[in-house]
Amino acid sequence: MSQQRLRQQLNEIIFGTETPAGRGFDIALIYAILISVFIVIIDSVEHISSEFKGLLFFCEWLFTILFSIEYAVRLYCSQHPFRYARSFYGIVDLLSILPSYIAFFLPQAQFFIIIRLFRVLRIFRVLKLFRYLGEANMLMRSILLARRKIFVFLMSVVVLVSIFGSLMYVIEGPEHGFTSIPTSIYWAIVTITTVGYGDITPQTVLGQSLASIIMVTGYAIIAVPTGIITAELAVEIGRDKGEHACRNCKKTGHDSDAVHCKYCGAKMEIPV
Amino acid sequence: MSQQRLRQQLNEIIFGTETPAGRGFDIALIYAILISVFIVIIDSVEHISSEFKGLLFFCEWLFTILFSIEYAVRLYCSQHPFRYARSFYGIVDLLSILPSYIAFFLPQAQFFIIIRLFRVLRIFRVLKLFRYLGEANMLMRSILLARRKIFVFLMSVVVLVSIFGSLMYVIEGPEHGFTSIPTSIYWAIVTITTVGYGDITPQTVLGQSLASIIMVTGYAIIAVPTGIITAELAVEIGRDKGEHACRNCKKTGHDSDAVHCKYCGAKMEIPV
Amino acid sequence: MSQQRLRQQLNEIIFGTETPAGRGFDIALIYAILISVFIVIIDSVEHISSEFKGLLFFCEWLFTILFSIEYAVRLYCSQHPFRYARSFYGIVDLLSILPSYIAFFLPQAQFFIIIRLFRVLRIFRVLKLFRYLGEANMLMRSILLARRKIFVFLMSVVVLVSIFGSLMYVIEGPEHGFTSIPTSIYWAIVTITTVGYGDITPQTVLGQSLASIIMVTGYAIIAVPTGIITAELAVEIGRDKGEHACRNCKKTGHDSDAVHCKYCGAKMEIPV
Amino acid sequence: MSQQRLRQQLNEIIFGTETPAGRGFDIALIYAILISVFIVIIDSVEHISSEFKGLLFFCEWLFTILFSIEYAVRLYCSQHPFRYARSFYGIVDLLSILPSYIAFFLPQAQFFIIIRLFRVLRIFRVLKLFRYLGEANMLMRSILLARRKIFVFLMSVVVLVSIFGSLMYVIEGPEHGFTSIPTSIYWAIVTITTVGYGDITPQTVLGQSLASIIMVTGYAIIAVPTGIITAELAVEIGRDKGEHACRNCKKTGHDSDAVHCKYCGAKMEIPV
């Protein structure tokens, strides 16, 4: 019976955000995650790494052990341990402690600790940032509605880039940096996305002419994904305003951050 | 009579996608195309090319002969051979086998085998990706509706780029990399599309000032094609929702992937 | 009287586009302009210039003399010579022949012959491309309606770029390529417009951090001019469709390239 | 009593823009600010700085002393000196004279004089550019309405860039310029914003493949902030036109720069 109560209390603290202890735990956890990610990042800077070798090593293992214990406790006090372990947060929690252990055998693996950043997504739950989730949902919904258009668009880009890349390989050749078709395709992607590193550039007049065509093409088609997302978003925002009705006068068209109805002044329900 | 039946059966397998054999043939064909393109791409990588010379040579000719036979059979079993030969797919089918033969005389021609990528467009027919075709059609229709605006826009860019290029040639001159007006125009295109390789850059104060004006201009006018496409797309999406009516309650405004009417719950017709 | 008739006939040929002779003259003129611009462009390529020195020199002067005669005849046969001379086309016509004469004293001036490109705008008048002018007008109207928003936006960019440039000059200093505040402002413009030549790049950690902020800022505010133009264009396109009514059934909402009314099938008036 | 009048008169001249003296003072002030900023900018150019050392030094101190006196007088003649000192303009006025004094101890501080540029914002008050303020307000309102979407978007970019940066550090390593995770994150920002300096570029096939994914991702998500701002702006512009009603016939839908009602021709109120 007492163990049952302990599990329930731990569950409230670790999974819950209603009690002061639950909130405090989650906020402490987020700070711990951010600090541990920061340590991994600065550990990669040579002169800091060599100077504070001991301290950084100690901190990394401290956090890894803390997070390992936390994972074990989560499994212990969860009502459905297997369901938690297979959930998004459960997998991220596991993936964010594994790299430290794998680093015993594969030193580079250590830097995958950065996966811990995903755990910070909990901040949305803790700080009751439901409004932000609503906004994120709207963005995701727009992208989902546009997924087929984006797929068709990406397919066209892949075919275009392959053709242009092969053409440039034939025109410019290895002596001007276009050493193979994969490299030429990489150059075409760098160009069509307007990144333009300049590590590989066309030298011949024909190559420069073709490159100009690719750039203007890229310039024109950058409009397509923007147009797709914007058009979907405009519909979503319009629908949002349409559904956000006042309970008193039933009129719609309020902004999503309206507190009072702009027609009758009645208090608005906050949309979730 | 028997030959008539053979042609009809071949036609069903090669051109049709209704029978299991027809689907199987088309899917096998798509894999063969992707593999043959992949071989051409890796054949251009020096160290792979020299190591697997024999194997790659064998594969390329295997696919070329297979595709040549396929083309001949298509001509044989088609009901209107000439109509097929002059259709989009007919021309692409021919163009995708020619480079291998031309490569006897002109080795570089081999890389044009990448034209085979266009044959993959058949995937839309096989996998009944009509919805995707619908999306592609909407994108194409938006671009077509906006074609005159885009033409006016491109003409303005060409004039602008010629004037700016000539000005920079006069200001910077050959000693700073602007070796001729064509090169300067190439630089202006690289700059106005915000690609910015950095292989040619202005060195004088006057040149840098003019370059700044070109960049801000480019930054401002990148908005124009985006605006054109977006505005047309918004109209297209709006029309799409307007035309997609429920057969039961006649109400419109359904999403293009809706399965049931959101007002009365009746099964929706899938839009083609 | 005879001179009066000569002037009138010349006027019809040179200024008019109604008679076959008038159209023929304008089309020949456009070809002459394009060829003369092409000659100036290839004249700037060293190895072509030195090989065909005599031919190019002859062609340039041939066109200059032809265009000078044309300008004189225009002045002679125009009903209001002064009004023509002060009009947009009159000024462009003059400016496009001056550089050749100025080149006697200032050889570089020759390349300003490219101003002739503006004369090609006549093509709109000749080919009755009124629809294109309509589209161009819509684009211009959108930009005009948005002019105050664009001005506020450009002012903000200028202030932002000056502040960021000065900060980077203090942080990075002349030893990393940021030799003066004007150069640093140039770098900030190159960065905020996402051109990114890479001729000047931050080397210190602080400089790279500030540069990252500038880039993300640029990434976010690139949305603003696009948003402005798109929103105005959407309103313009909406109004366009609203005004394009069928004369038979009075219904609106037709596409700008509709030939028949989509409701009653009556022939539509073509909008100008 | 006389001192009271002096303070009131000074207040009218310095703070007011109604009297000719008040307008004259503000316009003179704006010119003085622009000149003093220009002096700081050209003072950073080595060869100008060394040649006109004395003159530039004199001018800088002249303006600093003038602005210091102006600040003192503002404090003296303001009705609520503390309220002024804590207002936006009060703080900017102070910050724009401090750098010159701090430069005694910290020579680099001098360049922060560029903060004076913010003082030029007064131009909006002087020239009665209320319309421009209205446009600026609309832009700000759109950005404010979209602030949560933009926050969610920026958070996603930060997480994405950290993950991609760490991956590239592991793949490419210090020998190809990816010397640490912070540097790799800087590279990821340079790439995802399509700036693409080219000072650090991937060399391995795996690195180039990952870089290609980052670029296409950046290309796709550049659409998101644009879409957000555009959709909000479109709503704002629509509302603007909806609220701008004619006082005579009550009809709405007028452009923001309309002087007469387009339906009944009555004079419109100018919107503030």
From TrEMBL, chains A, B, C, D:
GO terms for molecular function: voltage-gated potassium channel activity. It is a multi-pass membrane protein. Keywords: Ion channel, Ion transport, Membrane, Potassium, Potassium channel, Potassium transport, Transmembrane, Transmembrane helix, Transport, Voltage-gated channel. It holds the Pfam family Ion_trans. It is found in: Membrane. The keyword Membrane applies. The chain crosses the membrane at residues 21-42, 54-76, 150-171, 210-231. This is Ion transporter. It comes from Spartinivicinus marinus.
